[in-house]
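In this section we walk through a basic example: taking a raw amino acid sequence and producing a predicted 3D structure, encoded as discrete structure tokens. The instruction is simple. Fold the sequence below.
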Amino acid sequence: MKELYLKKNFWLFYHLGLFVFSAIAAMFRIYHNFGNPFVLAVIVDFFTIFMVCANIGYLIIYMAKKATGYNHKQLTKRILPALVFFYFAAFLIANVFISLGVFGWFLYTGTDLSGFLPRMIINEVNLFHGSFFIVLMLFTIILFYILWQISIKQEQLLIEENLKYRYNTLKSQVNPHFLFNSLNTLSEIVYTDAKKADSYIQKLSGIYRYILENEETDYITLTEELEFVKQYFNLQQERDNNKISLKIDCTDAGGYKIIPVSLQLLVENALKHNLMSHKNPLEIKIYIQDERVVVSNVFQRKNVIEGSTQTGLSNLRERVKLIMGKELIVSEENNQFIVKIPVIRV
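The resulting token sequence is shown next.
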């Protein structure tokens, strides 16, 4: 609310601030020259300082607004020429209004106008020396700082847009990846057991609905993701029956949030890459450890993996890095394949 108020009344505060500054500066300058700030000359100085500062300020604001239309690379190339242009443009602005002020003072006091030009050149306006040069350089430094800040923001915006694009691209790969693997599973049972295939399709539609509903979501509660994993695992049991098992030990799951469809992908990855049988069932465990959810399974690696798109784990690794700024930890310990995915506390 405060920022909106300041933005709405920017020009009011801008001119009010310049008015106060110009009055103080004019009185100080006249006191320094005459020993008394309350003489008529203070009005001329006030007018001159106010008009010079106001118009140079307008120039700064105009150039800053124009700079926002360039990207970081374009702006970097234009900063030096812009500063040179600004310095000389500010010099001309100051020259015009100082000349008007001095000329008006000459007319008011009846001073001989033949001394106007020499006074301007010697005492009032000098491009590279004295206080006038210092003031112009100060304005130039202010503009440089503003343009530099705009350049940094433009660069940050570009980085954020690139990251957002990469993340959305990665998320868009999740649906085809899941559908591809699910259809592979369906193709294995559709010709052997029609009832099982029909049940599989019904459950698959519910699971796919979950994926679509959370397509634009960056985080979901761990409780919801675990329920989704259970539904998915039950779906796989339609095909593999007692060849697979899932153990979940996640206390206080409602107190954490996780990237959606992440645990499902890891369970799917374990089922896809490992051998399983009634004699040697594949056991998958999910538990919480050190602010991470761990998914582990015994190594029973297949020699040949049919229908693999090779995108699952690498996709998840990139999504975790982009959205959370953390790394997905993948390791092999004691014949166990272990993946640790970061979570955040609610």
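Looking at the output, two observations stand out. The longest strand covers residues 282-289. The first helix runs from residue 2 to 8. In the next section we compare this with other chains.
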